[in-house]
Amino acid sequence: MKTAVQQVRANSGSGEKTFQWFVAILLTVGGLLMVLPFAWMILSSFKTEGEVTKIPPTIWPEHFTLENFKILFDSMAFGTYLTNTLVIVLASFFGLFLNAMAGYGFAKFKFKGRGFLFYLVLATMMIPGQVTMIPVYLILNQMGLTNTMMGIVLPGLVGAFAIFLFRQFMSDIPEELLEATRLDGAGEFRTFLQIVLPISTPILAVQAILTFIGGWNSFLWPLIIANDEKLYTLSVGLSLLKGQNESQFALQMAGSTFMVLPIMIIFIVFQKYIIENYTISGIK
After folding, report:
1. SS3 158
2. CA 186 to chain CA centroid, nearest Å
3. Where on the phi/psi map is residue 144: left (φ > 0), alpha (ψ -120 to 50), or beta?
4. Which among 210, 266, 202, 251 has a CA at the least distance from the CA of 74?
5. pLDDT in tens, 229-253
6. Which residues of the chain have pLDDT under 50?
7. Where are the alpha helices (DSSP H) in the chain?
8. Preceding peptide of 128 cis, ω within 30°
9. Each residue of 78-105: b (16+ CB within 10 Å) or e?
């Protein structure tokens, strides 16, 4: 009887290991298929135009060249697009600070209408951004901010999702700690800077990563609000590159690589913080 039970367990364990190997192989093949287009794009950005269109195609460049990237900055104004994108990213980081302050206010200050205002902020998360673009554009037009960098960055300074996450995280900060800081003579702003922000480093770091990704990928709003090419971002410039150089595939690959590679590096390095962020938000 024991032999039969052991045999069943052995067969069950063998079947489970076989299934695990099957899943591992399947995921590995799927991962390689997902990575292949990115690898092809990055390697092709260092190829000449003739090698990119060569048949049969080559995976590894026969002769590495940086000519495609040189053309982007010398002839395609990618330096201007990069500057505009970095300005948007820096403004978004300032907006992140404002989001943290708003979350702290909702978490630790008791004032009339706090619950209503917070639910009103949450309600804005249910409205698609495309719905509010026209009203926001009309408001900025009345203020004379269309076709300006201020008009590009101003609507994205604050966000309901970031305020919600900061509020949820900061709600768990002990009141006794804040009271002790106030008794030592610290004002509210100093308490926020020296106590609340250091404690909120995990959620602050993750939001900084997501803010960078959002600012770096900004496309639709700059395209709508800006008429001057000098205000375009990298995403808009990449779209123009594709439209103006349809047959220059190596140049398009270089532009795509320059746009995507920083995001890939940021995600690979900080992906554990992003996962922790959604874990924290799920627990809250």
Report:
1. coil
2. 35
3. left
4. 251
5. 888 998 888 888 877 777 788 888 8
6. 1-2, 8, 281-284
7. 2-44, 49-52, 67-75, 78-108, 114-123, 129-142, 149-153, 160-170, 175-183, 188-191, 197-199, 201-216, 220-225, 234-244, 249-283
8. no
9. bebbbebbebbbebbeebbeebbbbbbb
Single-letter residue type at 139: I
- Distance of alpha carbon 168 from the chain centroid: 21
The length of the chain in residues reads: 284
- Long-range contacts at 241-248 (CB < 8 A, ≥ 24 apart): 241/72, 241/76, 248/49
Tokens standing for 20?
Answer: 């695990």
What mean pLDDT value characterizes the chain?
Answer: 84
Q: What's the farthest any 2 CA atoms get from each other in the chain?
A: 87
**Tokens 């899943």 appear where?**
23
Residue 241 is encoded by which pair of tokens? 């590159």
Contacts 24+ apart (CB under 8 A), 194-202: 196/100, 196/104, 196/170, 197/100, 199/173, 200/100, 200/166, 200/169, 200/170, 200/173, 202/169, 202/273, 202/276, 202/277, 202/280
Quote the CA–CA distance of 64 and 71 in Å, as a whole number: 15
- pTM for the model stands at 0.81
